[in-house]
Amino acid sequence: MSKSELLVYIDGEYYPKPEAKVSVYDHGFLYGDGVFEGIRSYGGVVFKLKEHIDRLYASAKAIMLEIPLTKEEMIEAILETLRRNGLKDAYIRVVVTRGVGDLGLDPRKCPKPSVIIITEPLLQLYDEERREKGMSMVISWVRRDPVDATTHEIKSLNYLNSILSKIEANNAGADEAIILDRRGFICEATGENIFIVKGDTLITPPSSSGALPGITANVVKRLAEEMGLTVIEKDLTPNELYNADEAFLTGTAAEIMPIREVNKRTIGDGKIGPTTRKLLERFNEIVKDPKEGIPIY
Ligand code: PXG
Fold first, then answer.
1. Domain-terminating residue out of 100, 121, 142
2. Which of 109, 112, 155, 271 is catalytic?
3. Does the global pTM surpass 0.90?
4. Which residue puts its alpha carbon closest to atom 15 of ligand 1?
5. Tens digits of per-residue pLDDT, 34-68?
6. CATH (domain of 77)
């Protein structure tokens, strides 16, 4: 199927991609008022679909947005969209917007939320060469929105906080940006969680930093424990990151991405470290396991 013939689910109907449109009065567009998930399927299995759906509904609850489908109906709509598009290895974007309202920001003026499901053949964010080489990172001057503001614990449609940091990475000629929390501790990257390896311990910042509780991060923590590593969540300083043995990013699109350098400080010996490589190998083994997700067909 060519890309333009792909069907997009909008509120129970399937539209060809060129006709898949929402109103300019939708508060998702006007105010970033809505929530989303980025999900991935591997070889016909939607990886950790239930966990993504749980997080979508948790984000919606936090912003008092009532999704007009049960979780079971949502899962079925996602699987049906993938089937209609004949996809096995796919990137899936689920968006729930506040819906059409007036030009004021009051969500009470939006009677009906919209549900959108976009599925595409896999989006390759980073090629394998980049993975082998590792990412160059800069620490952005833009701080993460704190937990008492538009925290990224909620996966909302408002990503300007991350986009500002991505612009800094682009301007610096780096691959990605690291975002600090309000206090100056490491939080996460623009759309990925961050880990360091120090000896046989794996360390990642807690969600009190305002980071998204990542589903890939959870899987990696489990795999690390199975490999006998100690996994801890604690505040990490930039200094601890510079002096880590290894560091990497995790995310649905990025999977596991080694970090080569941060603000021109080489991490470890500047190559994929042995622990990162082992985790990557284990991760690649489990992603197609039907027990780790929900089969499409
Ligand atoms: N932090 C943030 C702020 C994210 O948006 C992650 C961490 C990693 O979480 P998961 O659950 O995916 O391991 C995310 C996820 C994109 C894109 O298009 C971004 C995400 C997911 C998919 C695609 O850049 N963000």
1. 121
2. 155
3. yes
4. 191
5. 999 999 999 999 999 999 999 999 999 999 999 99
6. 3.30.470.10
